[in-house]
Model the fold of this input.
Amino acid sequence: MVTRRAWLHDVAATEWGVNTYWITSKGGIKAFYPMTVEFFLAKTDLETQKRVLSHPEVEAVEEVSKFVSIHDWQASPVLRVRVNPTKIRTTFEDLRKYWDKYLYNADLSIYQQFSFQTGLFPYVYAKIEVKNGRLQKNWELLEHYLQADYRTVPFRTLWMQPFFEEQNFSRGQIQEIHMRQSLSQEEEPIVFIEDTEAETIRESMMYLNKIDPDILFTSGGDTFLPIIAQRATDLGIGYIHPGRGRRKLYSYVKKQTKPRGHSYMSYGRVYFSQYGVYLDGGRHHYDVGNSFMWKEGAIDGIHELVRLGCSDPQRVARATIGTALTAVQMRTAYRRNILIPARKADSEDFRPAWSMMSDVGGLVFSPQVGFHQNLVELDFLSMYPSIMTYRNVSPDTVNCGCCKHDQQQLVPGTGHYICTQRPGLVSLALKNILDRRAYFKSKRDVESYDRRQKVLKWLLVTSFGYQGYRNSRFGRIEAHEAISAYGREALTRTNQVATEFGLEVVAGIVDSIWLKNPDNTPIEQSIVDKICQKIQDEVKLPIEHAANYHWIVFLSRRHEPTIGVLNRYYGLKTNGSYKIRGIEIRQSSSPLFVKKLQRQLLKILSVARTPEEFKECAHKAKRVMRRHLMDLKAGNIPLSDLLVTIRPSRGPDEYVSNTRQAIASRQLAKAGVKVEAGVKLSYLILDAYASDPTERVKVTQLLTGKEQYDYPEYRKLCIRAYEGLIPPELEQRKLTIEEYL
Done:
């Protein structure tokens, strides 16, 4: 018998149990744990029990009590169906033919099944015993689920990056493969470049297995690992298996027609989610180029979400924030004995059309366009999640049956009311996230804690929108409306309190408000503290003094100079940093040359403190911009600084007109690259108005470095960036840029 202190790293389904993989300071441990997975059937008649039990993969059926819906006050009898872990998907598909609407908990991952049933969540530090290769049940948790200050897992890592004959297209022969044992780019990589391509692949795979990493990191591995697998089979090496287990990459070989992923729309933009290459046997693969979570929180952020949702780390690394949030809610539901529906369970209540007046969204105070001095910004801390937590707004608490005749907590401006008898499911799930993020923010000077709080911020941001999302497991439009109503009330009262203290509201949006003295003098800190305290006492939501500003410039609509918009502004804080929204430097499509220009202009403006000084700095900024245009005209700008990055909204063959993104997409398709909607691509503008559409732009992968860019078109982008930053009324001389040049 072996007793160890270890971290749970991986769980894999096997016959009548799971293989668990643990990480210790001295290496890894593999241990089998016998178990069945379960799902539930909300139909208990004797005939149903007999039919379910007759299924060859069902081990047992028993009647238990569960809350079928989040709205139930009493548990109901349901059938618990126990199945071989390797057969749950096929069994579920068989049973749903007859009892689709009665099935629950059927689509939980093996990680969730194991964690929910045993209490051993991913990356928990525990004292375990292994006897004859089996995990014994007398484990001892050395960390609890709610613990925020947990131990860091001592992973062994390896970074892998191949280089192809046609590197821009990731195709052709593999020239060399680079590997390094840390994520630091400063580490000198080990380069595999053998006499033949076959030897290069074979030697690199041997090195991978020698190092035996727990996590294999790549940038683009979800794309190039199948290509390496294909090359290996073509060269006679056979199937490669970069994991520790038996799974080879044969499923990715010779299946060129298999979809690489799927496109989806989020907040008006189209994105492409590529299917991942998952490794087995206690080794994970993270493609950092195919992971939003990695960009926000790196490995610390990913594993924070893994712990909270008890989910597969490789899946979490590639999943959307909504998927991670749903996993946390699912665990909360399981712990409360509530069944988890396979799809959205709540439909919107029927109501007359005029009642829709309550669904008006968040409150906005239109900004006063122009330059403003000595402002203070107040922010409600995670306003919507805080409302959901402290006001108990959840799908199961809005217009509940228990408070129908005793509506103590009415939602302002709506016909809704909130339950006062029990906490809501979503409210409980968010309470833990709010508490954890507050703890991590208090220690954000530690890099790992800062990464964790960043991913938790996205969970909180998503939680509100998911209440109105059509596919949310635990969402309801009435809850969405109630949250918005409480938010409007909070911002309205904040406006009133600020006015009572003699301050002027310059702008406000949903959960933030900017204030200043009418005479533009700095606001005393004691006044700010009193305002925050009064608002917090009256609104019952946490609010903070977010920042002091030397000045803020609120910009107008481009073609309506008198109308302000709250998604375009920039302001200089008293600590010397900027807060920027909506201008070119924040737009992903802007060429690097334009962003560099705006960055220099903002640096020049940062010395200004008064409107007069700002105008003087704006005049200097115009001269700097003129020098940039001279360099642009002389052809001194690297082509890499002029690339425009976009996400095509459709496939190459679906475009009707010859837009730039359509032309770029078709160029890639013609070169043999499959282009899906939402995939990032970049291009250089060659001749914006060429009669031949194919000569207007050239996609990055086809550039030779000898191309001539369209100076007039890039000049327009620079002028737009300058004029969008500095309105005419803030210039020392009211001249258009064309007149000035």
